[in-house]
Amino acid sequence: MNSENNRIQFVARKDIDEGRWNARVESAANGLIYANTNMLDAFSPGWSALLTSDYKVVMPLTSRKKFGFTYLYQPPFAASLGIIGDLSDKTINEFLFAIPSLFKLVDIQLNETNLSDQLSPNFAFRKRRNLLLKLDDYSQVASGYKRLANRMLAKAKELKIEIKDEVPAEDIIEFYRRHYSGSHQEIKSPDYLGLLNACNNPFGKMHTVTYQASSGGKILASYLLFKDEKFVYSILGGSIKEGKESGAFYLLTDRAIRDNCGQNKIFRFEGSDDEGIAFFDSQFGPAEINYPHLIINRLPWPLRWFKLAK
Fold this sequence. Notes:
This protein has 310 residues and is of the alpha+beta class. It has helices spanning 18-27, 37-43, 89-97, 138-142, 147-158, 169-180, 189-200, 202-207, 241-246, 248-260, 275-282, and strands at 8-12, 48-52, 57-61, 63-66, 69-72, 84-85, 103-109, 124-135, 162-165, 208-215, 218-227, 231-239, 265-268, 287-297.
């Protein structure tokens, strides 16, 4: 990257050209919705970026400060960000080396196109897992469902579980917090507020999808997703005990898949590194891919073993 147009720059949020940035995220095959400026502003106010002068390659940097140190972290509801654009191994390495030293700890998840055997040994990576499902014709997709998924879907239909869509995002988030916050204490109130802001800003309202499953007036499961022209993103969902027993979340997942089939999109299950979640997701016949979790630790020695990013 030696030409002026390809020079990598570190740019503060206020100096980013939103139109050029968002156009690149939308046009790039590896541009995920989390990297849209509206989403970034909600998830990580004050984010910055690395980018080439022509905006052909961009990389959002989501940061926080703790104990006087500025560090890069992964917002809980943005599964991966990373380097976006047409990439070579050389470009990926150049961007990683360009991460400013002011970030004393880097603990972020890049996207799957940033994974390469040619990455510099200067960086520590851990491979993480995601599951992706190509949303062809629904009958073709459903033919790939595993036996358990089909059994639970039949059970949910037999019990006449009802599905409601266009549920307010705050209701989905509140349901999740009520039933799951104890097992996800790493997700703090500001993170949930960021998700709500992401859903309720003008961009988010056009790209958020919500479902709720109920029986006899009792809510059994809820689901919140994002969608754009390329992907459908599983963001937040779960069910109560009765919902698990009745297959309510299987029903909601099937509905989200069905509603988006035949539109040349890919369903991103997001979060399939957890064995329990991966088992559930695998029942719908997706393919496994890997993406890199990057860690760069520049903290002073006494603090190097402590975790800042939570």
